[in-house]
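Re: the 349-residue chain
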Amino acid sequence: MRTLGKFLAGVCAILFVITGVLALLFFNIERKAFSAETYKQAFENQQLYDRMPGILADALTTAITQNEQASTYLKSFTAQDWESAISALIPPEELKVLADNSLDSTFDYLNGRTDSAVISLLPFKSHLAGSGGVEAVLQLLHTQPVCTVDQIIEMTLALMSGGDLIFCNPPPEAVEVVRPLIEAQLQLMAIGFPDEITLISTGHSGTPEDPRSNLKIARAVMQITPLFPMLFLLGLTIFAVRGLIDWLKWWGWPFLLTGLISLFVAVPGASLVGFIIQWLLESQAAGFMPPVLLLTLRETVGAIAREILEPVVIVGLALAVLGLIMILVAAFLGIREKDRTIPRSQASR
């Protein structure tokens, strides 16, 4: 019976080590990969905030293209044009706030706190309708080919009739002439712009087709992974522990091995964790997350993996140290017990 108990305890110890390592990984993936704060830190580390004009320009171009009511004039702007305009209009610190708010909105949706995710365009509209908007458009026009005579005539007629601005580089003497037309166009553009761009629409929110349903199941499984090693630790205790030394040995070795393997996985394992995160994004989020946002999040996979593995390293190191201490204490108590037993046996003789 004692042999069977030790065998079952050994099985539980092996399963504890396996599930313990997996629990450390998956629990921290669930805790970190679905937090906006993790991505904000990754954006900072990857210097993605510096590329926000391009990211917003792609999102804006897509939104305007898909909007049937958008004017032909707005649709004539390319993503590069919008990127130049955004860079000229919005200061870097405001772009950072805009990006952070967008991340908060996205992860509020993923975490079930809202039914959609949006990017606010109010800062852009405010700067567009202000004095900086005119200078930004002039800067944009200066990147275009020089206006032909016909285009200058069309631009003059547009000024008098309130028509669209011709997209070309006016000569210096014509800049002040076209400035009122630019101001009028910007006022119309600001009025016609939506207050926000929808990154993730309500779609099937709250219905059986809600794309977050599968994601919720996957996250629920990750959240309960720590229960499995706890159950195996309990089984190990029931089958093998009969005293203090048994407890120190049978807990110490699994703790030590779990900690060491976790460290071995965590230190070089950023690519493995990155692969898991990328799989989650592609399999669970690609169906409802816009490509521009999905591509941006993919670029943070390496930084996210390092953020996730940091607590794994800390907990793994703590388990390894605790396990080693328990083993050493068990060995010390075992030696003392032998020392006490030998004199007694000698005295009995």
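Strands lie at 117-120, 196-200.
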